[in-house]
Amino acid sequence: MNARVPNPDETSPVQLTGFSGQHLYKRRERIYTRYVGGFFQKLRFFTGWPLLIGYFVTPWLMWGDRQAVLFDLPARQFHILGLTIWPQDLWLLGWLLMIAAFGLFTMTTVVGRLWCGYTCPQTVWTAIFMWAEQLTEGQRHQRIRLDAQPMSLNKFARRTAKHTLWLGWAALTALAFVGYFTPIRPLALDLATLELGAINGWALFWLVFFTGATYVNAGWLREQVCLYMCPYARFQSAMIDRDTLVVSYDATRGEPRGSRKRGTQPADAGDCIDCQLCVQVCPTGIDIRDGLQYACIGCAHCIDACAQVMDKMDYEPGLIRYTTQNALDGGPAHWLRPRSIGYAAVCLVLMVAFTGAVFMRSTLAFDVIRERNVLFHLENNGEVRNDYELKLMNKSQADERYQLALDTPAWLSIKSETIVGVPAGDVTSAELQLTGNPPEGITNALVEIRICSSTGECQTEETRFLAPGGTKS
Q1: Residue 133 lies in a domain
Q2: How far is residue 316's CA from residue 438's CA, in Å, rounded to a whole number?
Q3: Which of 328, 355, 389 delimits the end of a domain?
Q4: Three-state secondary-structure class, residue 63
């Protein structure tokens, strides 16, 4: 029995044709997956659920008097435990994405698409939606029969229960996601008490949007995301070689295929009994016996299904297994290869550099902005005064008092307050006035302003001091 069972209205291609008259696109044929247990499915349980728990619990954790992880876009602050990232530090985000990319490249060259099969959010969420489908509509053969039936009270009730579970899980997913950008505790309280008017309009929009996106992606699109939307499925072939561990069918042992009774082994037949279970359990609907395909996400459903069949037939397991092409051909496995070593080395260097950059980054940033309405002021005592606005940013997690000083020139002095207090994780504006008697002929002097924190960290910023007699651009 083929795993792809078309709906009655999906048996013909869409009438979209090219110049040659051939069909360019065929309607999607629905995949009815069969449930299978086994070692690798238990392993997927222990990789998927910790990630789910982390995703849903993290927004509720507190760090002092604020949310432990909060990407506060209006305030332009990303809080991650005791670290606050400001817009000036967004280069760290690019660095972090590079680390993730090279980590994925390293994993792919060694173990193929294990990320897709065990930890990808699309895979994990789709598995939950499929579980809800099996819970409400039954196993594979029951769902096929239910789809073929006309609408009835039983079918309507089952469909309603399924979509209610889908929408409920999608709403929880959206709440957790938005909770990373908006304080989740007041948001959840407003939703629970139906105080929708108290919710920020953008937060409410993204709640609705991500509820719908999760519902559509995991409930309806499913394998279409992996087949047509995920770029990783397309460029993974550039990183996989004959020594990459992938899900493979041992054609030498399995062919020729043929059905038979349990415990028998015809002399002219391989171990594959052509039961089609490996196809029926595949979430993307492929036949692994056709060889490695970009649509294979490495989830090992087919391995567990085939292992159970081999056990019932009293055959050796491993007809479908994780292996390399070289191993299938009888050669040795080479785990350490120039490509994998290169990816791992780059990833390690980036991680070390990123860690150093995080701990060595400055917790102080400031700008000096000249008064634009007046070039300078003449004091009663004959001195020249220039006014500025200081913007001080305290990136640390503690309140700070900064000391202002002039490095150059020596004939200038600070007339305003030289100590400025800035709360933790805040930006404060302060007035700065510089006065002095410029030497003859000086109309535009370079000024170096130094600000130091109580921890001894100092930064210097340059500006210009203008005096009578003309200005220079």
Answers
A1: no
A2: 93
A3: 328
A4: strand
Burial class (CB in 10 A: 0-12, 13-18, 19+), 24: exposed
Q: Is the overall model pTM greater than 0.90, yes or no?
A: no
- Could you say which DSSP state residue 241 is in? -
Candidates 241, 240, 217; CA nearest to 230 is: 217
Q: For residue 52, is it within any domain?
A: no
Peptide bond into 409 cis (omega under 30): yes
> Is there a domain that residue 409 lies in?
yes
Q: Other C-beta atoms within 10 Å of 184: how many?
A: 21
Q: What sign has the CA pseudo-torsion 296, 119, 110, 326?
A: negative
Q: Looking at residue 395, which CATH number applies to its domain? A: 2.60.40.10
295 alpha carbon, distance to own chain's centre: 21
**Using CA atoms, how far apart are residues 119 and 311, in angstroms rounded to an integer?**
28
The residues pairing with 444 across neighbouring beta strands, listed in sequence order, are 466
Among 463, 472, 414, smallest CA distance to 443 is for 472
Question: Looking at the 3D structure of the chain, how many domains does it have?
Answer: 3
| Token couple for 441 | 């002929």
* Amino acid, res. 100: A
3-state secondary structure 223-234: HHHHHHHCCHHH
CA 385 centroid distance within chain: 53
Q: Residue 269: give the domain boundaries.
A: 241-328
Half-sphere exposure of residue 230, counting CA atoms within 13 Å on the CB side? 22
Interatomic CA distance for residues 85 and 303, integer angstroms: 44
Residue that the structure tokens 């990373």 belong to: 180
Dist CA 273 CA 310 (whole Å): 9
Both 374 and 450 in one domain: the answer is yes
Beta-carbon contacts of residue 129 (< 8 Å; ≥ 6 apart):
166, 169, 218, 219, 222
State which H helix or E strand residue 103 sits in: helix 91-111
Q: Is 335 exposed, middle or buried (0-12, 13-18, 19+ CB in 10 A)?
A: exposed
Residue 314: count other Cβ atoms within 10 Å of its Cβ: 10
As a whole number of Å, the end-to-end CA separation of the chain is 81
C-alpha to C-alpha distance for 8 and 280, rounded to whole angstroms? 19
Question: Can you read off the two tokens belonging to residue 361?
Answer: 């980054």
Query: Which amino acid, 345?
Result: A
DSSP state of 263: T
- The verdict on 286 and 370 lying in the same domain is no
Of 190, 228, 230, residue with least CA distance to 207 = 190
Within a domain: 149: no
pLDDT along the chain (473 residues), means of 10: 41 44 66 92 90 95 90 86 81 89 92 90 94 95 94 96 97 96 93 84 92 95 90 83 93 92 85 94 94 90 96 94 92 85 94 88 86 86 91 86 88 90 87 89 88 87 83 40
Secondary structure class of 402 (helix, strand, coil): strand
